[in-house]
Recover the amino acids of this structure.
């Protein structure tokens, strides 16, 4: 946490933070919002450009229908009402990476309004209002470093210029950095479920600004807010918000006033800085974009999108609890990503052991994936193969312990569990007669221990089991070994 | 043939078909004439002689190969320098784009070329089409071919003057508040603006997007009708272009206007030059003689049009011209310290005074605290002006007015009085605000020496360009261009 602000827990406790988030989400369309250039990330600078997204004289925007469909999808999933008629507006400001000198956005007639997301912090569920979801175009990028003459020059890459964005504005309903974190997590999960964005914060496809104010607990009026920008990771979000909340409380406790300003979060120093308000005070001079017709989303279009909505995380979580008798915790973890949920469901169906499938997915497989920096979509172990492994354990072909090694091998080689088990001769010894022969040999070789056991030192049994397991290279089923040993030692 | 530069399109095609002249000869005749006459008129900013001759030779080869003529085969055309032409400079008559080469053609230009047109060059205009006299060109003013001491009107003064001086058969201009119709009137030619959305704006450098149009000039209504037909129609690259089929305009040029109801709005006949008024009234009499029914009408919100127009057009201009910032293309100030200083100096040195005036006005009317009082109010007035026309067209088929309240004025006469200059647009901005089509046709000359042209303006219903052209053509056939 911050090192600059020191306030007693008591003082902090007298205040309540009021936070609203403005989240920009890049849509996963193949082409840009107003031209047919590719949205592909990471191409050589200015490769994906044309007269429209370069803002050349005489060029005109043409709205990408797919971008609207995705925006409507997101808005519907956020429980927003879709305005049948919305309008684009120009947001005017000068910046080198804004080629037209204005950004085409939406202002007083946005695509959609009035939605919500339910969050959960601790055991409390809470509804966070969504003020609006509107569409806009992204700006280009200013490259301040990485060139031999970066000290004197800034380079401009306009590949991102015109990439479609939605801006999701929340009500000031969040009351702590933790709530903000949970809200953002759920928002991101939702966007990933809908496949409207990859929400990759490093590539800038999810960007967050926060409006923050504090007020004395019980006060009805909001305090003066600041806008905190540059919250470009989940980690920074909480820290920046916590810092800003404490900073504001500190100002107020010392008899000061909060000035309405934009502040930047410096992740290195873990604090927010006021940007010189004069330089950044914008009058955006919004007015309706005359180059585009009003955007009309017909009832038919909306219905079509509604029908295409996938099962959303909340619904899936409830269904997993009901259908697979999973604990809430497991269901929540599994549904945190659509890919994980799908993987689990395929595995569970294929092996008929949902609880075991959940355990394997959430524990051993997750660990391997994390260890190797892979997502579940890149998992070398398919859901079907994981199910095969679970079945081998369930049929006692291999032990649970051995299964972990088999999984690691499957992960490494991509082979099926049966292949690995038979190649390595790992089938469990389930024949009592075979085990009896081994047991008798071990008892005969260790008369002292056998005697101790017979005299009532039953703990020796564990030692005998270990010896048998060792002799069978772990392929014996421990329970069966114990039964056989009991019989042989009697 | 003796004179290849005063022909109509039909005459050009007749000559080509009968092998009396080749397209190359016609193009060369124009190029020669531009060389001898344009130093006085200064209608062109740049010419492309080689390209023009090449296009003409291509037409000749097609004729030799027995291919049918296309609508504009071999027709010499001039293009206003706010309309993009690939491989030819497009300066918008502004220092800020002095050496700008567009990487693509405007849709209208592309359609002209597909129709066989021979593009001679780019014509002068007021900087970014902002003005009514072509004196705001960043390079030099154009002179009125009828009296070289006078302005040709504007902003498409170069395109109007080029056609009037036989330096092109037809030309393209742009009209935002009268920039085709008013110079057509001043230069004694026909100039037409279609319904908003009739012609694609793709490749027209934007001045005021909700008002901008591309349209043709010609010496006859038929030439204008044909050129209009070529450039009109839906364009997927312009979202505001209309998906409404384009009539074969020349078919409507039947000269029969019997029973056509002609509205005459009182508001357009007050406080104007009395000789202009007399000529237009004679023009209306002629229409009556042709069997039209003259109907007095009211367009009650006319008096608010100039204020409304200058708020909306400057607001849009302030935004449209933001891209000329010295960052990516065009002029950049040679010396500056830091980004903001680069913006300031580039725009200060690159734009002329009228452009700066409009950017400042537009920035002001969009500013928070003023938006409602100016921009929003102007939009409401715009709706009322459009409604005036819609209601009037319940009773009449076309509306006839003078094009300009004043005759072509002397160069420098109004340059220091922007308000007087703005008022020159008083009869043309209404149709721009309403989005209806309008045309200006010659309507006799003023007494005096040299005799100066008068323009009569005709409006029609949305997308009723056929009717507009029919009435204009009937008027021309009946000798209306030289009423006296």
């Amino acid at each position: 946490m911050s090192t600059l602000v020191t306030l007693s827990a008591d003082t902090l406790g007298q205040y309540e933070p009021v936070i609203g988030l403005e989240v920009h989400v890049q849509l996963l369309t193949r082409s840009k919002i107003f031209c047919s250039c590719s949205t592909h990330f990471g191409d050589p600078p200015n490769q994906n450009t044309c007269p429209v997204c370069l803002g050349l004289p005489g060029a005109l925007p043409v709205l990408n229908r797919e971008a609207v469909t995705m925006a409507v999808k997101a808005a519907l999933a956020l429980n927003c009402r879709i305005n049948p008629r919305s309008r684009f507006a120009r947001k005017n400001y000068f910046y080198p990476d804004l080629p037209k000198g204005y950004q085409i956005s939406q202002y007083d007639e946005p695509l959609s309004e009035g939605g919500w997301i339910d969050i959960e912090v601790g055991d409390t569920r809470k509804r966070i209002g969504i003020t609006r979801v509107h569409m806009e175009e992204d700006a280009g990028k200013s490259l301040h470093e990485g060139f031999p003459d970066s000290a004197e020059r800034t380079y401009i890459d306009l590949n991102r210029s015109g990439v479609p964005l939605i801006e999701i504005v929340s009500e000031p309903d969040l009351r702590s950095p933790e709530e903000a974190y949970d809200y953002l997590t759920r928002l991101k999960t939702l966007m990933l479920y809908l496949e409207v964005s990859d929400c990759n914060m490093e590539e800038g496809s999810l960007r967050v600004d926060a409006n923050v104010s504090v007020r004395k607990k019980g006060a009805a009026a909001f305090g003066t807010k600041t806008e905190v920008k540059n919250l470009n990771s989940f980690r920074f979000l909480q820290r920046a918000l916590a810092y800003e909340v404490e900073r504001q409380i500190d100002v107020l406790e010392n008899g000061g006033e909060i000035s309405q300003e934009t502040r930047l979060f410096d992740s290195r120093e873990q604090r927010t800085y006021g940007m010189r308000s004069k330089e950044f005070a914008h009058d955006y001079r919004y007015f309706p974009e005359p180059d585009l017709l009003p955007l009309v989303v017909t009832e038919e279009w909306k219905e079509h999108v509604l029908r295409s909505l996938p099962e959303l995380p909340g619904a899936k979580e409830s269904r997993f609890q009901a259908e697979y008798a999973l604990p809430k915790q497991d269901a929540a973890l599994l549904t945190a990503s659509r890919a994980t949920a799908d993987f689990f469901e395929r595995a569970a169906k294929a092996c008929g052991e949902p609880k075991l499938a959940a355990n394997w997915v959430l524990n051993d497989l997750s660990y391997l994936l994390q260890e190797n920096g892979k997502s579940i979509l890149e998992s070398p172990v398919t859901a079907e193969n994981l199910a095969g492994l679970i079945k081998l354990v369930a049929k006692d072909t291999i032990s649970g312990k051995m299964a972990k090694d088999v999984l690691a091998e499957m992960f490494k080689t991509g082979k099926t569990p049966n292949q690995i088990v038979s190649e390595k001769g790992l089938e469990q010894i389930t024949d009592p007669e075979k085990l009896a022969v081994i047991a008798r040999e071990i008892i005969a070789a260790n008369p002292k221990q056998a005697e101790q056991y017979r005299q009532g030192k039953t703990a020796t049994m564990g030692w005998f089991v270990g010896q048998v397991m060792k002799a069978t290279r772990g392929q014996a089923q421990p329970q069966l070994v114990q039964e056989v040993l009991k019989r042989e030692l009697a | 043939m003796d004179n290849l530069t005063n022909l109509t399109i039909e005459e050009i095609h007749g000559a080509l078909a009968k092998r009396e002249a080749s397209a190359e000869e016609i193009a060369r005749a124009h190029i020669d004439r531009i060389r001898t006459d344009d130093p006085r008129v200064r209608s062109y900013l740049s010419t492309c002689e080689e390209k023009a001759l090449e296009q003409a030779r291509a037409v000749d080869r097609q004729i030799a190969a027995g291919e049918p003529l296309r609508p504009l085969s071999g027709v010499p055309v001039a293009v206003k320098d706010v309309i993009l032409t690939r491989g030819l400079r497009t300066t918008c008559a502004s220092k800020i784009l002095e050496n700008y080469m567009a990487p693509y053609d405007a849709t209208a230009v592309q359609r002209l070329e597909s129709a066989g047109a021979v593009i001679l060059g780019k014509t002068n205009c007021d900087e970014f089409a902002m003005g009514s006299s072509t004196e705001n060109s960043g390079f030099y003013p154009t002179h009125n071919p009828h009296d070289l001491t006078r302005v040709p009107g504007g902003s498409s003064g170069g395109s109007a003057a080029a056609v009037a001086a036989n330096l092109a058969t037809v030309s393209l201009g742009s009209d935002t508040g009268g920039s085709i119709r008013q110079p057509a009137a001043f230069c004694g030619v026909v100039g037409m603006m279609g319904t908003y959305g009739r012609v694609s704006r793709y490749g027209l450098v934007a001045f005021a997007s909700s008002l901008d149009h591309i349209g043709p000039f010609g010496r006859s209504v038929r030439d204008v009708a044909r050129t209009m037909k070529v450039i009109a129609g839906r364009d997927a690259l312009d979202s505001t272009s209309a998906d409404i089929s384009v009539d074969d305009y020349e078919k409507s040029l039947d000269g029969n206007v019997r029973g056509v109801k002609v509205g005459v709005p009182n508001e357009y006949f007050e406080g104007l030059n009395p000789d202009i008024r007399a000529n237009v009234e004679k023009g209306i009499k002629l229409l009556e003689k042709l069997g039209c029914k003259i109907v007095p009408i009211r367009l009650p919100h006319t008096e608010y049009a100039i204020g409304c127009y200058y708020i909306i057009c400057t607001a849009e201009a302030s935004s449209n011209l933001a891209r000329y910032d010295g960052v990516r293309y065009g002029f950049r100030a040679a010396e500056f310290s830091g980004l903001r200083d680069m913006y300031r100096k580039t725009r200060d040195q690159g734009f002329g005074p009228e452009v700066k005036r409009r950017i400042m006005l537009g920035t002001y009317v969009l500013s928070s605290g003023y938006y409602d009082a100016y921009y929003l109010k102007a939009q409401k007035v715009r709706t009322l002006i459009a409604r005036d026309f819609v209601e009037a067209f319940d009773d009449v088929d076309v509306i006839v007015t003078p094009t300009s309240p004043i005759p072509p004025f002397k160069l420098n006469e109004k340059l220091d009085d922007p308000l007087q200059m703005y008022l020159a647009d008083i009869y043309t901005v209404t149709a721009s605000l309403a989005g209806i089509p309008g045309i200006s046709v010659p309507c006799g000359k003023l007494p005096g020496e040299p005799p100066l042209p008068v323009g009569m303006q005709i409006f029609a219903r949305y997308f009723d360009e056929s009717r507009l052209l029919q009435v204009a053509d009937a008027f021309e056939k009946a000798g209306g261009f030289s009423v006296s």
